[in-house]
Each structure stands twice: as C-alpha cells, then as structure tokens.
Hints:
A: five-stranded mixed beta sheet; B: alpha+beta; globular
Amino acid sequence: MRVNVTVNGVAHSVDHVWALESLLDFLRERIGLRGTKNACEQGECGSCSVYVDGVLVCSCLVAAGQVEGRSVVTVEGLGSDGGVHPVQQALVDAGAVQCGFCTPGMVVAAHCLLAGDPDPDDLTVREQLSGNLCRCTGYQKILDAVHMAADRAGTGQ
Amino acid sequence: MTVTDAPTRPGVSSTVFDGVGVSAARPDGVPKVDGSFIYSSDEYHDGSLWGVTLRSPHPRARILGIDTSQAEGLDGVRCVLTHRDVPGSKIFGMVVYDQPVLAIDEVRFQGEPVAVVAATHPEIARRACELIVVDYEELVPNTDPEVSLTGQVDGLPGGGLVRHVRIRHGDVGAARSLADVTVEGRYEMGTQDPAFLGPESGLAVPLGDGGVELYVSTQDLHRDQRQVADCLGLPLDKVRLVLSGVGGAFGGKEDLSVHIHACMLALRTGRPVRMVYSREESFFGHVHRHPAIADIELGATRTGRLVFTKVRLVLDGGAYTSTSQVVIANGCYFAAGAYDVANVEIDGFATYTNNPPCGAMRGFGAVQSCYAIESAMDKLANKLGMHPLELRMHNAISEGDTLPTGQPVDGPAPVQEILSYLRDLPLPEESDHQAADMRARPGGVGNVTRGEGIRRGVGYALGMKAIGFSGGKDDTCTARVTVWIRDGEPVAEVYCAAPEIGQGIVTLEAQIARTELGVRTVELRDKDTNVAESGASSASRQSWMTAGAVVGACGLVRDEILERAAAVLGRPVGEMALDGSEIRDRDGRPLVSVAGVLGPESVSHAYIYRHRRTEPVDDERGQGDAHVAFAYAAHRAVVDVDVELGLIRVVEMATAQDVGKAMNPIAVEGQIEGGTVQGLGLAVMEELQITGGRIHNPSFTDYLIPTMLDVPPMPMKIFEFPHPDSPYGLNGVGEPPNLSSTPAILNALRNATGLELPKAPVRPSDLVTELLP
C-alpha cells in the first residue's frame, strides 16, 4: 500500500508498505530515521516512542498504515535551528546518558511529560516515565535531567 | 526497502577543557540525545541483505539431517548456510573453543544456532528459516547441576563438570572447637539476564581482497577478531572489526553473537549483510548470569569474631564453557566475603547442563557468592544477638590482612569508613501509608493496599571484588596519541580500541589527553582492530588500563615535543614544560609555541600499558597472588513489605564505595546507581524462568527489569583513597555496586518479615505469611 505521512514536518509518500509493517520499521527502514530504537518490539520498553498527531505512542505497536494522513514527530524532530531541545541538553548535562539506547525514547517521553506538566514532582516523573526502560543509569540522573529541564524552562533559560 | 548512502559517523571531538576529576560531558552525548548516534542495529549499507538465524527448539537433540532446498528456492533468498559451510574452525569460544558456529550433529541448548539465511528482506529470511527441515531426534536434557558436578553424566563434556575450584586456608576442622556459635544456610539464586536494551546486531561488508569488515557491538574487538578469523579460515589482517554503537552489554556482549554468521553470509553472497536480533532471540542469543546454589557454614566466638568460613558454591554454566571456569574461580576467591577469617574452606563447581549457556555478567561470580556470604552473616548476627553492621565492622578486612588465597590485601581497604557512612546516615522516615501517595506504597499504582499489613525492614551488605583480570592473565591495553597543529593550536587524537559500552571510556580518554597535554581539542578515532588491543571492557578494568595506556602515550608525545623544542631553542629539555599550546620555562614564561616547534608535522606514539603480574592459584589449595587490585562497596536497603499480599517497595538504597579517584564524578555516580538497580532487579524482580532446559519468559513483558517507579532514592558516599598502583590512583568502579545491592535488600526483607528467604529473587509468594495457614 501507499502511505502518505508527514514526519518531522516533511511530507512523505511511500509505496509498497507491507500491511503488517510497524511504524517503527517504517520510520527506520523507509524514511531512514534510525534515531527511534528497536529494543523490545512489544510496547514494554518505550525506546521507540514518537508522537503521532501530538499523542505519545510506542511506534512498534502502531501499524504504518495507521499514520496515513497524520503527522509524526520523532527524536530527530525535536531540536531546532541546528541545536538540541532543552530536554535533550538536560539529559546530557545531568549525566543521564550512558549507552544511550533508551535515550531517544526517553527524550520524547520526557518532552511529552513536560509539555503537559511543566514542573512535575518526583513521583509524577517516575510514574510518567515508567514506560521507558533504562538498563544503565538506575534512572536517578534521568530524574535529575527532567527536573533540570523544568527548572531551566521555569527560569527562562 | 529504501536504501540510501552509507551513514556519516557523528564526529566525536570535544573542545571544552575538562580534565581528569571533572564531570566532563560525554563526547557522544549530543549524538545520543538527538538520535544521530549509530548503534550496531542502525548500521546499513547500499544493497545490503538481511541475515536471520534458525535456532533449535529443543534443549537437547541429535540432528539426523538438515534439508535447506525449500528455503533456498524461496524468492528473495540469497543463501542458506549450515555447519558444512563454515570455512575454518567449526567451533569457537572466549577461552576454549567448544561451541559450534552452527550445530553439527547435535544441539545442546534451546536456541542453539543451526542455520543462517541471507535474503533481501528480514521477513523473507524468517520465512526461509521456517522452510528449513531439520530432522531432530529429541533426547532427555540434563538440567541438574548437582548431578553434573559428579562428572559422570553421559553426553556432556567432562561428564558435566567444567571446573572444581578448591581454596584451603588455615584449618577449618581444627577451628571448629574455637567456635561458640555456628550457623548454616543454603542460598539459591535464579538466572539473571543482562537485558541490555540494544539487541545483538551488526553489519558485515565483504571486501574485494577476500576479507571482510564487521561493524558490531562488543566488549572486546580483538578477542572477537581472533575467533571470527579462525572460523572464517582467514588471516587476522583480512578481518577488520569496527566498534559500532553498543546499546549496553554488562558482560552479555563478550561472547560472539551475529559476528561469524554475518561474515559468512557476506562472504558467500558478496553483499553486505545486516543482522539484528529481536528481543526474544536476544534472550537465546547471549549468556546469562549463572544460577547458583551456595551452602555456607560460619563459626564465630561469642563476641562475634569469625573463626571459620566454609562454602560450597555450585554455578551452572549450561551448554558451553564460555567463561564458566573463570566465573567459578572469581566466585570462590570472594566467597568468604570482605572479612578477615583465619580458617576457610571453599569448594566451587561450575557445571555443564543442557540449560542456556551462562557466562560473564557484571560482578562475574562474586555477585552470587556475595549474596550467599552476606545472607549468612545476617543469620550469624541474629544468632549472636549483634547488630548486623556491628558484626561486619568487627570482622571487616583491612590492608595487610591475608585473603583465603594467601594473597595479602594491598591497596586501600577502607571497609570501616564505608560501613561507618551507612551506620551514621539517618534512616528515611517511616511512611504514613494511609496518607501516602499510592505510588509510594508496596503495589504502587495497583492501589492494592491502603497501608494494612506493611512492615519496614532495614538490611546491610558488604561486597568485595578483584579489579582487572586475575590468575596470571597478563593483559595489556594500547593507545596511540597523535598531536598536530590546526589553526595554530595543537590538536590531540586518541586511538584506542577500548570498547565504549556506555560506561564513558571515550569521555575519559579525552579528559586524560587534556590533562596530560594541556590541549583543548581532542579527537577520538573510531575504535577498530587496526590498532593493537585494549582488552575487554569487563572486570571493571577498562578505566584503569586505558588510563595507563593514554597517560603513557601522552608522555611519549610530550617528551618528543620537548626534545624538538630543545633542539630548536638550544636549551636542555629539563628546563621546559609543555602547557597546551605553549612551551614554558621553569618560571612559566613562554619560550615557544607548540605550533612553532611542530609546523606542519605531527608527533605520534603508541604505548602498551601492563598492570602488575598476577599468578594462577594452585589446584590443591587455591593459593596464589592472583589479583591486581580489590574494590569495596556496601549498601543499606530500606524496604516496606506488604506481608498480606507479598508486595515490596524498596524505599531507599544507600551506598558507599571506594573508587580510588573519581575520574569523572557524574559517570562514577551513574555506574553506582546503575549497578545498584541491577542488584535491586535481581533481589525482587528478575529471573529467567527455566524448566527442562526451556526459557519461558524471553520478553520484556515477562522478564521484568526495574522501571523508574521501582527505583528509590540512592544516597551515596564516594570515597577516594588513591590506589598506589594505578594511573591517578583510580580503582575500578562498574561491578562493586552490583554485589552488595541484592543481599542488602534480601537482608532488609528478612529483617521486615523474620523469614529465611533462601532464594533470590524473592517472589510475592515467598513473603505472604500472615494469611497462610
């Protein structure tokens, strides 16, 4: 089938998409955006998190055909003017990146969290990001990074 | 599939002056947050095929025949390979070669590779695998390590026994009369999975000269290269390995996975081949932490002084050796814990079975033995009526004591300081569960309790482990450092094969070059096998070894720059110092710029770093100076347990560790937090369910690793007692936090419930006491 979709603001029209192809595979193999990661392929780890029409989803659980006519934003689409988004910078600055495989999904999920709650408390961050597994960091620095991004936004940095 | 040009690797360079001891930013940090960093599963190449592996559904079977004809006939399939197609050695292995590249006439574990397929699309390759007809004669699997350790099992190598390690220190028999109190316990541990998020994957590219390039995630490029070359029947210089992005490892990427298979498919088809394991396949495609059975007997005086320790440790290594013979040794070396005890008897057995293969995982045998000895220490404290921390401080090892292997404890052993921090740290306040946020209760957002039946417990544990390879392995690390001038300023390039697996060795390489040479700009070459070997990113050794190599190479570069300056200026070398872009005299006055000395030339030196020599322990009594160094950490766990529903909330994990020198403090904290949480998973969540040699939960839906909501605050104290033998005084960091975390939680659960809890991880059913008859 043909899928027409806007990804990070760019319109794509892709032919020969398989009926059971996931949005994750579509993004990685058809569009060539490999920032979105494949870690569990069943919606447990959050590494493949993207926005579809502004809604946070696991792209491994969405069929490519379901995004027909929709707008997808991936980790590659969050920065601007050649720079990274403040949430991304906070993850670097807080030491929240080790192997980094969970990071793209964590970036999108944290971005979504702060968009809805600009100053979340610890338990809220832990709950909202509990769908994103990280095996390296023990999560403390990720928690720190979310607060750092919230604080910087709050003080206009 | 749309295939575009091969990717440009994100440049790794840094121009911020962050030297050793500073929380420097990772040079790969921005590429990792913006999605441009290339992991081994992201590698692609024009015209590449996909490789897929057919694996055995049976834990043990004879192979009577393999028919690949239907698979080969499927449209889109480019080749189907079996053991007959392995060009060189048909077997491989990290230390001993005993694992078939592709099964030959038998399979010894569920998931053993039998055939590989290359096709134009991964789904076509998977369908082709389904069309391969393997005629199996199923056999009854051997799955009991207690039977295997007899060495009498037909159908297993060595009759089932990998290695029996004996350590004899003092005289346990004679010491029994000195013990006023004895305790005995049996402690079991389930099989933990490394559960790295980035699956095994790689890209093999055939070269025109008959060689091959492999872009892969690994913990040791050169050990992989030797095995791959042997099995391909190629000389080493025809097999180049390049480190691709590693999505976590934790020991599970020391053994080969896609390596040989991808290269075989690429060489056969003449096309680049990508392989990426699915999560389910990953659970079958890498080694696990050895499940353990430990029997411990401790004897102590009435005042709590240990007089003897007797341990029997059984680690099941599964179907192939991997590193089992070394893991059992490491488990035994530290089975008596970080305690000074005069009489020790340790017998350790590593076994073969038809269970999934086990090998290296963070802590490497010491995790299992630390869990056992620390559980027994709490039992002893209870029997003595002593506080568990007091018993530990009373017996803690210190510098100059003798280990059960006869080796003196040299280097700092600040166990008293570590335990004192945990003793003096205030406990978190008791929760008012009726008032508390449900997310802070056991059971969390399940909202299954409002605070009824919750008991708090506090537990402690202490761990000790060797840093670096032990037992006579004289490993090395090589780094090449090159300095040249760009825009009038010196630039340093570091070229070292040390695998970056998330720990931040690339940050450290840049920090060290800045500190040693005073340069601002450091560039890091891609890590590959064209430079001499670094050894594995394992055994908490890489910071120490790489630092030694980079410091050494920087020193040679600095010496040559100063010698050149001396020749230009006609002054003795001893009167000059290199300071970034300037060469200065003894009073700090600039004499000449580095640019003025070097002009268009570069200065380049390689340095091979070696740690001090170690020796193997003897077979009879396990005596010998086997270790390079030791590291220590301890944890205090606080838990809330719902004893009616068997639900646990870990409230706090406090920890203290000596790291010698915090080379990059924020990275050190990250290692300690990450290791602590892997230990938490092993205590209360993580276990591969294996019966009859079959894994029942090979997914992240069924194999649970801690989420952010399962993880508590982790107050910590990092001690920096400089190690006399290491660069900058640093010590290994990565594994120690993984040792004591698990038994601290078990001891806290025992403290809360009064139960023995002889098995980790603890399941809800183990805890439900009040409602059961």
